[in-house]
Amino acid sequence: MTELTYLEAIRTALIEEMDADPRVFLIGEDIGHFGGAFKVTQGLLERFGPARVVDTPIAEALIMGVSIGAAIRGQRPVAEMQFADFVTCGFSQLVENAGTFHYRLGVSVPMVVRLPSGGGVGGGPFHSRNPEAWFTHASGLKVVAPATPSDAKGLMKAAIRDPDPVIYLEQKLLYRSAKEDVPDDVFVDIGKARIVRPGKQATLIAYANAVPMAIEAAAAVEKDGFDVEVIDLRTLIPWDWQTVVRSVEKTGRVLIASEASRTGGFASDVAATIADLAFAHLDAPVLRVAAADAPVPAEKSLEAYHRPNAEKIERALRGLLAY
Amino acid sequence: MSSPYPPHPSAPAVPPPAIGHGLQKGAQPDVATLTALWEMMSLSRRTETRIIELYRQNHVTGGVYTGHGNEATSVGSAWCMAEHDVLVPTHRDMGSHLVRGHTVEEVLLQAMKRADSQTGGKDSGLHLGREGSNIVGMISHLAHMMPVAVGVALAERQKGSHASVLTTVGEGASSLGDFHEALNFAAVQKLPVVFIIVNNQYAYSTPRTLQYAATFLSSRAAGYGMPGETIDGTDVAIVLDATRRAFERARRGEGPTLIESMTMRMRGHSEHDDAKYVPKPLFEAWRGWDPVHRLEAHLRAAGALDDAKVKAAVDAIEARLDRAVAAAMAAAPPEGRSAVEGVFRRWEPEWSVPDGAIALADEVLR
């Protein structure tokens, strides 16, 4: 066990995988000498040299295209977007190129794209995006979204070793605020949800930044005797629909919390799947608590209004339990 | 000839050369090499002609993008590659596919979207290149392949291989940001990449006068800190010379080169397109620069080809194409269910979310 922040967990996974596999390399803007905008890659240039920690010009489509080209030649690139928001500049490369190579020609594209995502840090419309649904909809990209240091490390290792392109959503808000003892040999299989706390009366599903909010909301209603099961999805493509359906069959009530905008969000797909596969077990409507259908505003009270939080989830949960 | 280049907007008054004129004077490869190049260029042209016929007969559907007029550039540039070099071609590069080892049989299976084609009917055209091959399978977002080509070069350097990369785009795709990002980074990293802009005058219906304002696209090279030159892309000896110099530079570790190769797209964008927007005199002018005819005229003048030799070579190509077309016609189409296979390299069956509509119907209508 080593106590690590979420950020240190990501860095530790990168170092361990780079030590173990000479094919793994990092590419992105300001990641070398500067150590990255958030310092995730600090010290890695010194440790691994410029051939494996590649500083690029400001060119996201290039970073994606170069990663694809390297991956199809057997390397294992881990690309950093400085903020998830800027992935739009490289979007087409990911969706059209990385996401179709194996389908078209059977060519493996083992690359990881790190997206510092999410709000709650006053970043405004261009430094707060939760872009996961763009990629979960695309077909051909795996998507993971860890919410704890252990999962951050374990899923990074799984993502690097995976033979497919993996979008790795990392939460800026959790970089330094989330800290825990992480097993030194942690490895988290892609496709497995985590039951954060078992419960019988309702299922509360969350991922990424919404997980700590969900835990807080479940603890708040527990004071009034309600027993809520909290599930952290951890991975979105593939996602662990079986764990979710089993839980809903048990509780009959479900709420899905996501920090992304409501319409067309991944939470909507979870809701639709529950409606498809567990309808007969439901005692209440399938509810979502998500962000507003608006760009993420910069000012604190605007962002607080826009974004879900533990209080909003708790209120929805109380409604669900009372239904 | 007063200009070393075919018709160009900067020199619209270049008189068309007489049909059947040969190559420009200057250093040329030996006659045996030129003859082999002519055979390959003829194979490229005639394979495309077969695909056009199959399209008209409705045996090939969708887009049919040909390289008629581009054979000297496509064949000549790929001819300069070493075995370990990597090709990242564009959609009209039939010639470079054939030079680098794809067969007419593979090309025809792919054109007809057969189960045994490289993409099993999931994709078509020249989107070819299996895992482990030194040809990278392109997508229709043409400029996107330029950063990919740069990534291939970076990976090969990381692995300690001495492979260089050849990649081509049209003048149309050169307008996208990927072009800029790729050339800039390749130059910064001194990567061994040969970039060729195949300037074939039209991007679908858009003439190059609406595509860019520069006299020569090769002048962009200076802005990236790499050498660039514009060449007559219909003269295979000139293409060989320019590409060889670019590869030598790459192999010496001096970085990338940009070549603008002037050609003419002698057919429509795709075979549904009659290209009425191209002024007739332009087609007529360029007909005199037909790369296959030029090379043939040169070889006839040099005594390496005569009517009998041409007939023998053409008959051999056509017989091979007869067999390849027959095999592709007889090959099976893919099974519908393969449409959902192979999205990922690793996918566990339990990861697939059941289709609720089908499950419900199965249960209720049982």
Task: Walk me through this protein's architecture.
The complex is a heterodimer of chains A (323) and B (366). Chain A is an alpha/beta fold and 323 residues long. Helices cover 38% and strands 20% of the residues of chain A. In chain A, strands 3-2-4-5-7-6-12 form a 7-stranded mixed beta sheet, sandwiched between helices. A 5-stranded mixed beta sheet of chain A has the order 9-11-10-13-14, with helices on both faces. In chain A, strand 2 (24-28), helix 2 and strand 3 form a beta-alpha-beta unit. In chain A, helix 3 packs parallel to helix 4. The longest helix of chain A has 15 residues, at 6-20. Chain A is globular and about 60 Å long. In chain B, the strands form 2 sheets. A 5-stranded parallel beta sheet of chain B has the order 1-2-3-7-6, with helices on both faces. Chain B has helices at 31-56, 71-79, 94-99, 104-111, 145-159, 177-188, 208-211, 220-224, 236-251, 280-287, 291-301, 307-330, 356-364, and strands at 86-88, 165-170, 193-199, 202-203, 206-207, 228-232, 257-262. By secondary structure, chain B is of the alpha/beta class. Mean pLDDT of chain B is 93; it is low at 1-5 and 9-19. Chain B has a single domain, classed as Thiamin diphosphate (ThDP)-binding fold, Pyr/PP domains (Rossmann fold, 3-Layer(aba) Sandwich). Chain B has 13 helices and 7 strands. The N and C termini of chain B lie far apart (80 Å). At the A-B interface, helix 3, helix 4, helix 5 and helix 11 of A face helix 5, helix 6 and helix 13 of B.
In short:
The complex is a heterodimer of chains A (323) and B (366). Chain A is of the alpha/beta class and 323 residues long.
Chart the SSEs and their pairings.
The complex is a heterodimer of chains A (323) and B (366).
Chain A: E1 2-5, H1 6-20, E2 24-28, H2 44-48, E3 53-55, H3 60-72, E4 76-80, H4 91-98, H5 101-105, E5 112-117, H6 132-136, E6 142-144, H7 149-161, E7 166-171, H8 174-177, E8 179-182, E9 194-197, E10 202-206, H9 210-222, E11 228-232, E12 235-237, H10 241-251, E13 254-261, H11 266-277, E14 287-291, H12 300-306, H13 310-322
Parallel strand pairs in A: 2-3, 2-4, 4-5, 5-7, 6-7, 10-11, 10-13, 13-14
Antiparallel strand pairs in A: 1-8, 6-12, 9-11
Helix pairs in contact in A: 1-7, 3-4, 9-13, 10-11
Chain B: H1 31-56, H2 71-79, E1 86-88, H3 94-99, H4 104-111, H5 145-159, E2 165-170, H6 177-188, E3 193-199, E4 202-203, E5 206-207, H7 208-211, H8 220-224, E6 228-232, H9 236-251, E7 257-262, H10 280-287, H11 291-301, H12 307-330, H13 356-364
Parallel strand pairs in B: 1-2, 2-3, 3-7, 6-7
Antiparallel strand pairs in B: 4-5
